[in-house]
Amino acid sequence: MIFRSATVDDFESVMPLIYELARLHVDGKPEIFKAVPDLSKKDFKKLIKSDNRTLTLLEIDGEIVGVSNWQIRQCRNNETLSDRTFAVIDELAVSEKHRRKGYGKLLFNKTLELAAQKGATSVELYVWEFNESAKKFYESLNMKPQRILLESEI
Fold first, then answer.
1. Phi, psi of 103 (to 5 degrees)
2. Among residues 49, 51, 52, 147, which is most buried (max CB within 10 A)?
3. Are 86 and 110 in contact (CB under 8 A)?
4. Looking at residues 35-41, what average pLDDT do you find?
C-alpha cells in the first residue's frame, strides 16, 4: 500500500475514479449537475501542478484504488471570521470494487496527516444530502455538520 501525489502519468488511472464520483452526483442531483466533466490530460496537469491543490493517491499492488483531491485554504484578516488555516477535501473517491475494505478511511486519515503537515488545524468538505453512504462514512470518521445549506425551488 502506497500513498503518493498524482503525476501526469496517472491521468488514465485516476479519471475513472473521478468519473464514478461525478456520475453519482449527476444521478443524485441532475437539476444541478448536468454532465460528467470532460477533463483533458492538459487540464489534469494544471490541476496537479496547482500550488495549493494536492491529489493524493492510494495505490495497492500497482493499482490506483483511491484519490483525495484537496487543498489548503486560509482565512486571514476577515472582519467576522477568525484567522485559521484549514484543508478542504473537494473529492475523495475509492473505486467501487475496492469499497468497504477500509481504504477510504486510510485515504481520509492520510489526507488529514498531510494537511496538518501544511499547517491545517481542521478539514472541511461538502456532502450532498442525497448521498447517504457518504454521510454515514464521514460521520464514522467523527466529522460533524458545520453549517447547513438549504434550498427551495421558486
1. -70, -35
2. 52
3. no
4. 83
* pLDDT for the residue numbered 50: 85
Q: Does the reported pTM lie above 0.85?
A: yes
Whole-number mean pLDDT of the chain?
93
Chain-centre distance of CA 90, in angstroms?
A: 4
- Helix H, strand E, coil C: the string for 38-62 is CCCHHHHHHHHHCCCEEEEEEEECC
User: Is the pLDDT at 37 greater than 80, yes or no?
Assistant: no
So what's the pLDDT on residue 145?
A: 93
Q: Which of 96, 42, 97, 50 is nearest to 69 (CA)?
A: 50
Q: How far apart are CA 139 and CA 101, in angstroms?
A: 17
- How many residues are given for the chain? 154
pLDDT in tens, 11-22: 999 999 999 999
Question: Cell triple for residue 81?
Answer: 471570521
